[in-house]
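Researcher: Good morning. I'm working through a list of sequences from a screen, and I'd like to move beyond sequence-only analysis. For each chain I'm collecting a predicted structure so we can compare shapes side by side. This is the next one on the list. No need for commentary yet; just the structure.
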Amino acid sequence: MLKIVGAFQITTSENPLVAMGTPDPYTPPTGGEHTGVAQPLANSSGEPHMRSIIKPLTSAGRVALIVGLGILSMSLTADASQPKRVPRIGVITFEGLERQIEEFKRGLRELGYVENQNVQIELRSYPTERLDLLPGIASELVRSEADVLVAQSTPEIRALMQATSTIPIVMVGPGDPVGAGLVASLARPGGNVTGVTFMMTGTFGKRLELLKETIGKISRVGVLWNPANPVVRQYFVETQVAAQTLGITIHSVEVREPNEFASAFSSIAKARDGGLIVILDPLMAVHKGLIIDFAAREHVPSMSNLRVFVEAGGLMSYGVNPLWNQRRAATYVAKILRGAKPADLPVEQPTKFELVINMKTAKALGLTIPQSILARADEVIP
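Model: Good morning. Structure tokens for this chain:
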């Protein structure tokens, strides 16, 4: 074993074999004297063996050693002080989802990623009617050198896919990612896209059943929907099929642009529909206040697919809790930041649907909610 003596001379320390109680075959003959140079010693087989004892350093050697140690120390200090790169998450969303974005951040914190501490979040929002802004926003997030990108809806995901084929993209709420061409399949998404969906196939018939049971006798229901959204179109067809089974006539009321709401409301009022099904998508969600005010003014019981509608004053909703999607999206982001590849992470579908009822709205409508409905409610807002 070697040790530095005073930082100028290197000598041998006690032989480790001796320390363990083993005879040292290299011990010099008794009476021998160290001369400061290598001495030939006899090993156990009688052959000469060289034991190195390094001479005291010269002045020049001492200077070289000191300089070398100084450079090494500076190098280690520089490496230790080098700031570690903080992961960057790019998020794109339409306006009005502040609560959901906060839930996404909360999910990240629970997984060990705290904004402005060990992760940076680049958030970009846009008005839902300005889809033309998406390509520019997507390109900006890609240029920000994000490690992972997060998008809420199908148009946002498509914009990000056009901007990059390498940066991982986590979906939060597309209705049909396979049908929209976002992923190859739910089990094996492939490419750089994965995440969670708002796929609610098979639930719109249930909404119609719940509305009928709540109101009682009802023969005609208006359905407010956006035919420009392919997923919503699928949900509308599902509602029509369920209506035929229940003996209910569907009054289709289409809205593609914000300026079409006035004529839509007029159509519902003239038809004197006994109830209203609102298929929420980004367009309807942003203008839910208008819809709720109209339903209250005309005393029309309303049912939707998202709880935000009921929280804002609608009567009932049956569907996925969007906050759940945000937390699941945070889980995907954490997995990717830790090295997982999007192609290896299956897309998740919602498995739990909740019934939410607003009792204040029911009272304003003069409507008594049947006990059978209240017993099935996941949440009743007083």
